[in-house]
Design brief:
With about 850 residues, the protein is mostly beta strands. It has one domain: Maltoporin, Chain A. Helix content is about 10%, strand content about 55%. The strands form six sheets. The protein has a 22-stranded antiparallel barrel. Strands 11, 12, 15, 16, 20 and 21 form a six-stranded mixed beta sheet that branches. Strand 38 and strand 39 form a beta hairpin.
Length: about 850
């Protein structure tokens, strides 16, 4: 099946060509004008840090910012990696680069990212990913950005939806740049684990006429990347089994992992991002802009996992365990973490290669207008954003064989072997046609918005301005999947099924896998095995499947569609009285939500509505020219994720368990306050501290309970609102200082204490400690920066009697720039210098995943005029 590729690149190229025509005609006039007063652009690390501090200092709420210049001085390739440098923000690096952000102890789903004040539709490519309220940062290149602003205390004028913080990504505009601006860059990126160099290029052309009434900007970024991720995995479940040892002793109700394996994930990725902006200022009062952003990412993936299948086949088969090792779990049961499952005549070993052809597309089309009256201002904005993602091919090949299993697991140990099986010899594993499958999955996200804001300059005592506005949003997200399978009971294809079952892993292998888990393995870990070759698989397996043997049908379990109509209105007052200034206001939000899914085999829907008032106040006191005190209080709201709101229920006929969504989930509310002090002791220096406190009304967690469905008692896992919510408090410390002679340092530390009353649960997404530090040196020729990032252990959902835990993770990055000439910079970057491993386990010590992504290095040059 082929995907119809987005045509936005044709649009972009056409718009770029149109842009270049007036550039050629107007370049001479623009360069000959000597009377135009232009903004002085401060470059260099020190200048960039000063720009960010200016934004923070002038803000009427609690804000942190990063300028485009500073983003360029980091080794970051997407916006999430840049955001991790801000106090209180950490990122998820499960795929080797930042994709989701966590702010002030809150989960990624409780924070929003906007572009120029508006939502950006996003989707995901991986089969197990589901759309969330968060943002897929991997689609957004850092070169697109003018500045990043993180609002940690809400204002009534801001969109609701964030508990930890709201990120606003500001894109570039031609009127903010020189009359003629050209930026080009090219680099090669070396990824150590796959041992591969990849090219990346970007360019920006911006022009505005001499009268500064019209400007046009076109930018393009193209990145290729070869990824490899090694993973040692265990798949814990909530299923309980009786375990019998070699002496016939039975231990009842034991958590047994379904299985686990030694995995290698490989991806060849192409990401292209384009931006076209037209800006029109017909007079001193109007400023009109049209902005288009398109991102297209295509991925050719393969994932291979050499598996043990303890809870999937062995224990349910009644196989005994010699010298079983159990550990206690938090809910009073036990978990099997060691022993030898002796029966060599039942399925005990499998190899699961998966080949995916996937994609993610995202587009934004935005129109905005600003009018400057004599004592009032008007802002109008309307637009549409769409995203589509998924896979046009997600083919799973399943090879299995009979074997015993020798297991040994611990918090940082994943060891298993198969007595009598040589993992380098694929002839012992045969294809099972009944387990062949193909998932063609498409998720779509769309939002249309209309917004009007008015600001009135007034003199009502200490009130200096009244702001008010109305915003309408229509948001729909839909998930569909076609399942391909082989009906092995169909006599018409009996010959083809027999041919498929006769294929061994050796028949589609050209040799061993690469040597895996160089940093994450222990002495008994499986590090190499017979490796499927995609070319041979297409030749020997797909040729049979594609002849009509594999048939496709809609997967009703995967379908859901959720629509939200949101109306929001606000009024906000700005005030100032001597050294005291700030704002206060209230945002009123009405949400109409409808969740569509298959219910009892038929498409049905569940609807609900809710209305909320969200007040906020921000107070700033200028204690002196250098010292600013801030305080804020607000009520914030974050809606549940779309996947959790699905009204679907899926019953597993084999295990007798079920999974489901919960369309009646309540939003998460937080009553929060914070106060802090900022000391700007020189132009590019800051010492700041902020205390914050958030009382969450609830949070969402996955739990399994017995439900009566059609007269049967079934264990159903679904999301629930926690009864008592959670309390979060923390302290952010921030320092930035220029020592002179080109040396400087910046760093921040965030301590977050999250408590869940009357519960052993830790708040999902929270890390107690976060720390960032960078030291830099620059002169007229070179700039150097070394950066360190640390996030302490964080928590996830419930499985096998306790919570998922990601261990402490820290990473070193570096970048160096050489100003070869006035217009040319040569740069070098290094990411994950020490090749850190991501360790995931349950709180009781069952390993879940150890992931190694390896270091990356790049060498390139930038050309700017």
């Amino acid at each position: 099946m082929q995907r119809s590729r987005s045509n936005y690149f044709q649009k972009s190229l056409l718009a770029s060509a149109i842009a270049l025509m007036p550039l050629a005609l107007q370049a001479q006039d623009a360069t000959s004008s000597s009377n135009t007063v232009e903004e002085v652009v401060v470059t260099g690390i020190r200048g960039a840090l000063q720009q960010s501090l200016d934004v923070k200092r002038d803000a009427t709420s609690i804000v942190d910012a990063i300028s485009s210049e500073d983003i360029g001085k980091f080794p970051d390739k997407n916006v999430a990696d840049s955001l991790q440098r801000i106090p209180g923000i950490s990122v998820d690096r499960i795929w080797g680069e930042g994709r989701d952000i966590f702010v002030r102890g809150t989960d990624s789903t409780l924070n929003r990212t906007l572009m120029n004040g508006q939502n950006v539709a996003s989707a995901y490519w991986w089969a197990n990913d589901n759309p969330s309220r968060g943002f897929n940062y991997s689609i957004l290149a850092s070169e697109l950005v003018s500045a990043l602003e993180v609002y940690k205390s809400p204002e009534a004028r801001h969109d609701e939806g964030s508990i930890g913080g709201m990120v606003n990504v500001l894109t570039r505009k031609p009127m903010d740049l020189d009359p003629m601006t050209i930026n080009l860059s090219t680099e090669g990126v070396y990824s150590e684990l796959p041992d591969k160099w990849d090219p990346q290029v970007s360019g920006l052309v911006s022009w505005k006429n001499e009268a500064e009434t019209f400007g046009l900007l076109a930018s393009f970024n193209s990145q290729q990347r070869t990824m490899r991720r090694d993973g040692l995995e265990v798949f814990p479940t909530n299923d309980l089994y009786d375990v019998t040892d070699q002496n016939g002793n039975v231990t009842e109700d034991v958590y047994v992992p379904w299985g686990g394996g030694s995995a290698i994930f490989q991806q060849d990725r192409q990401r292209d991002t384009a931006n076209i902006t037209l800006q029109f200022r017909p007079n001193d009062r109007w400023d009109l802009a049209m902005n288009y952003v398109g991102s297209d990412m295509d991925m050719d993936n393969s994932n291979q996992n050499y598996l043990f299948v303890a809870g999937g086949y062995k224990i349910p088969n009644g196989d005994a365990v010699t010298d079983p090792v159990f550990i206690p779990t938090s809910d009073g049961y036990q978990a099997l973490v060691g022993g030898v499952i002796e029966n060599a005549d039942s399925i005990g070993v499998a190899d699961e290669p998966i080949v995916r052809e996937s994609f993610v597309e995202s587009e934004v089309f935005d129109l905005s207008g600003d009018y400057e009256g004599d004592a009032w201002q008007l802002h109008l904005q309307a637009g549409n954003t769409t995203a589509k993602g998924g896979s046009t091919l997600d083919r799973n090949y399943w090879f299995e064989g009979n074997a015993a299993e020798d297991l040994n697991f611990g918090p940082n140990t994943n060891e298993f072997s198969f007595p009598g099986i040589d993992t380098l010899d694929g002839s012992a594993l045969h294809l099972n046609a009944a387990n062949l499958r193909d998932w063609v999955r498409i998720m779509e996200d769309e939002e249309t918005y209309l917004q009007a804001d008015a600001n009135f300059d007034v003199q009502l005592g200490f009130v200096t301005a009244i702001k008010t506005g109305l915003k309408l949003r229509d948001h729909t997200i839909e998930n569909n999947r076609q399942n391909g399978s082989v009906d092995v009971s169909n006599p018409d294809i009996a010959e083809q099924v027999a041919a498929l079952n006769a294929i061994t892993l050796a028949d589609v292998s050209r040799g061993a896998s690469p040597s895996l888990h160089g940093e994450g393995a222990t002495s008994g870990s499986l590090t190499q095995y017979a490796f499927l070759d995609k070319g041979l698989a297409r030749e020997k397996v797909d040729s049979i499947l594609d002849s009509g043997v594999m048939t496709y049908s809609e997967d009703q379990r995967a379908y859901y569609k959720i629509n939200e109509d949101i109306t929001a209105a606000y009024v906000q007052a700005e005030f100032e009285n001597g050294p005291l200034r700030g704002n206060f206001g209230v945002r009123l939000v009405d949400t109409d939500q409808t969740s569509h899914a298959y219910i009892d085999g038929e498409r049905g829907s569940v609807s609900r509505s809710y209305r909320e008032a969200l007040p906020s106040v921000n107070v700033i006191y200028d204690l002196s020219e250098e010292v600013i005190l801030r305080a804020a209080a607000s009520r914030a709201m974050a809606r549940p994720t779309f996947q959790n709101l699905s009204s679907n229920i899926v019953i597993n006929a084999t295990s007798g368990t079920a999974t489901a969504g919960n369309p009646m989930l309540d939003p998460v509310f937080a009553d929060q306050f914070e106060f802090g002090a900022e000391w700007y002791f020189s132009d590019a220096s800051l010492l700041a501290a902020t205390y914050f406190n958030k009382a969450l009304s609830t949070f969402v967690f996955q739990n399994t309970q017995v439900e009566n469905i059609d007269g049967q008692s079934i264990n159903v896992t679904r999301p629930y609102n926690a009864d008592d919510g959670a309390d979060i408090q923390g302290i952010e410390l921030q320092i930035q200082h220029d020592f002179g002679s080109g040396f400087g340092v910046l760093g921040n530390y965030t301590w977050t204490d999250a408590k869940v009353p009357d519960s052993k649960l830790e708040l999902p997404g929270n890390s107690r400690d976060q720390f960032n530090a960078s030291g830099y040196y620059e002169n007229d020729l070179v700039s150097l920066r070394l950066s360190y990032n640390m996030r302490s252990e964080s928590y996830g959902g419930l499985t096998s009697g306790s919570q998922l835990v990601t261990d402490k993770y820290d990473q070193w990055d570096a970048t160096a720039n050489w100003m070869a000439s006035e217009n040319v910079d040569v740069f070098f970057t290094a990411v994950n210098l020490t090749n850190e491993i991501i360790y995931m386990r349950t709180a009781d010590g069952i390993p879940v995943g150890f992931y190694e992504n390896g270091p990356r290095y790049s060498l390139g040059a930038r050309l700017s005029f």
